[in-house]
Amino acid sequence: MEIVVQKFGGTSVRDKNVRNLAIQHVKRAVEDEKKVVVVVSAMGRYPDPYATDSLLHLIGEQSTSLSPKEKDMLLSCGETISAVVFSNELLQQDIHSMAITGAQAGIVTTSEFTNAQIKEVNTKNLQSLLYQHQVVVVAGFQGRTDQFETTTIGRGGSDTSATALAAALKAEYVDIFSDVNGIMTADPRMVTTARKLEKVSYTEVCNLAYQGAKVIHPRAVEIAMQANIPIRVRSTLTTEEGTLITTTEMGNEHNEVRDQFVTGIAYVDHLTQIKVEAPNEPEQLHVKVFKAMADAGISVDFINISPSGVTYTILDQYEKKAMQVLEELGLDPVLNKNCAKISLVGAGMSGLPGVTSKIVQTLTKHHIPIFQSADSHRTIWVLVKSEQLETAINALHVAFQLDATKK
Ligand code: ADP
Ligand code: ASP
Ligand code: MG
């Protein structure tokens, strides 16, 4: 049995017309004599009735006192509905198909409801269903605990369902179908000249995804990388090949010469930068601050620790809670709200001098102040004001020659 996995995101299963285009991709794989595992997301986006955010809206996401376990009972319904509807339409086109839940597909998770981790995938049931059917449609985003309670695996998790199933089934490849032509040099909603990358390494995509490029979930990429299964990110609306994600980094293969050291730009918006100064007892300070944040369930990022204090970022939505926690500790934090973190990612930039200088020059030319920066082997980060995010990304995109007019 040659198995392939095809994952269709929310916009690819939104209505009958687009689902019909999705079905044509499934049909082509069936005609190619593959057994197809289709993984679907919930249908559409808010306010479409069965989209994940619409289900959350039903219970007033922020104000609900439902337990995460009960929330997962609701959230998992979006994908379950989607799988059954998709399978029904496959049957209507004479494709022998069956819909199953994540649990029936053998996805076993930890019990961190709403954000569970996949622990194992028992493919026995799925394998036998694949012998009996051309296509098995699996509800993405969901699994079950050892106690058979329904879980979901975190927002954007259907990508991870797809690669986890592919790894367990030793599939030939995974196709991630979405509303874009592939992985682009930047979010095409933000940068209209963003260019599609033909081929990119797991590591680079993983970095881009961790830094906010929501085209694919980073965990999904890690799982495929470990199992060495190629991923193609492609559009449901066309037959184009999209972007191939494999182990090879551009420039490492034969005669390919990498003419660009930055592969892509990602961002995370809606951040608050917090500075806490305590010149008298610096060691105590960062221990106290980060413990307090962890105890309050606030995740911190972009951390700088210096002898005089600490600087870090949190999501804007936790700003009030963080302020309260820090004031209770007798501290006097300074907040810089409405910030965005821009990340430049590229395997080719490691060890290259001048990248940071180019970023600084570009942003200065556009009168964009940088509030914080950091760099690692393959990523450089800068923090700017949200209102300047679009200008900053576009300027950097041009400065690093990522725009469509260049190769
Ligand atoms: P799906 O519902 O199919 O999973 P998502 O909305 O999760 O789709 O991901 C697709 C979106 O990712 C695109 O519409 C695009 O705006 C966004 N995106 C962000 N960064 C990138 C990038 N570098 N390349 C392509 N798309 C990106
Ligand atoms: N429907 C879920 C979400 O919107 C999972 C997914 O689409 O990947 O986050
Ligand atoms: Mg997605």
From TrEMBL:
One Gene Ontology cellular component: cytosol
Annotated positions binding substrate: 52, 79
Limits of the CASTOR ACT domain: 335-397
Enzyme class: transferase
Binding site for ATP: 7-10, 189, 214-215
Functional summary from the UniProt entry: Catalyzes the phosphorylation of the beta-carboxyl group of aspartic acid with ATP to yield 4-phospho-L-aspartate, which is involved in the branched biosynthetic pathway leading to the biosynthesis of amino acids threonine, isoleucine and methionine.
PANTHER family documented for this protein: ASPARTATE KINASE, ASPARTOKINASE
Full protein name: Aspartokinase
Species annotation: Gracilibacillus dipsosauri
